[in-house]
Design a protein that fits this description.
This protein has 50 residues and is α+β, with helices and mostly antiparallel strands. The chain is 26% helix and 28% strand. It has a two-stranded parallel ribbon.
Length: 50
């Protein structure tokens, strides 16, 4: 089993990185030996660092 952490750091639905994120997650779901965990920066309550 291979663990993969995917960090989503863009909240624009039409952004290029969002499309790349969705394509990767969709493709990775086809492989049984991959365990994909998603961390969405905009869904988490993180402190702001300046």
């Amino acid at each position: 089993m291979t663990n993969v952490l995917v960090i989503k750091a863009n909240n624009r639905p039409d952004g290029i990185s969002t499309k790349m994120f969705e394509a990767f997650v969709e493709e990775a779901a086809k492989y049984d030996h991959l365990h994909v965990t998603t961390f969405d920066v905009f869904e988490e309550s993180l402190p702001h660092y300046g």
